Amino acid sequence: MATLILYESFHHGNTRKVAEVLAEELGADLDNINEAHSLDLAPYDLVGIGSGVFHGSLHPAVLALAQREALAGKKVFLYSTSGTGRKKYHREACRIFSSRGIALAGEFSCRGHDTSGLWKWIGGLAKGHPDRQDLEEAREFARRLREETGL
User: Fold this and answer.
1) 103-146 pLDDT, tens per residue?
2) Strand partners, 50
3) How far apart are alpha carbons 41 and 89 in whole angstroms?
4) Fold of 3-149
5) Model pLDDT, residue 122
6) Of 20, 24, 21, which Cα lies nearest the Cα of 32?
7) N or C: the chain end with fewer CB closer than 10 Å?
8) Is the peptide bond before 130 cis (omega within 30 degrees of 0)?
């Protein structure tokens, strides 16, 4: 099963670190989500899409990609990094996928250094994240995903 990991990692490289671990564990191709408009998604059976959190949601590029017809019939999973590490920020993307009849294969989220908004004045939230434990949890998520999807 061919796998592609797409990411948007804007501020501190948090999401790229997670994307690299996921790609390594899944034997996946890795690319920036901004290149997705020119990528042929046809060869891929499983597509991981992730970003940091921007104003309470995944990056707009993730939401735009969720609308692409090229994802129809594919297994898709979401991942993210944020100051809190909560999956609640996936809600909008999940809603889009659900409205298109795409069931998610899984979701992963972990903490990532966040210096947006007021956090910048105190040195940020979740400094030092994703850390070794966060990345090991991403690796374990990928292992479970591989088993569940039959990779």
Assistant:
1) 899 999 998 877 676 656 666 656 777 999 999 999 999 999 99
2) 7, 79
3) 25
4) Rossmann fold (3.40.50)
5) 63
6) 20
7) N
8) yes
Tokens of 34: 């901004």
110: exposed, middle or buried (C-beta count within 10 Å: 0-12, 13-18, 19+)? buried
DSSP, residue by residue, 66-92:
HT-GGGTTSEEEEEEEESS--GGGGHH
Tell me the one-letter amino acid at 142.
Answer: A
- 149 pLDDT band, cuts 50/70/90, is confident
Long-range Cβ pairs for the range 139-144 (8 Å, 24+) = 139/21, 139/22, 139/25, 141/22, 141/79, 141/106, 141/108, 142/21, 142/22, 142/25, 142/26, 143/25, 144/106
pLDDT at position 35: 78
Contact assessment for residue 45 and residue 58, using Cβ atoms and an 8 Å cutoff = no
> CB of 36 within 8 A of CB of 6?
yes
Q: What angle, rounded to 10 degrees, do the helices at 132-149 and 14-26 form?
A: 40
Beta-strand (E) ranges in the chain? 3-8, 29-32, 46-54, 57-58, 75-82, 104-111
User: Tokens standing for 83?
Assistant: 């100051």
> What are the structural domain ranges in the chain?
3-149
Identify residue 52 by its one-letter amino acid code. Answer: G
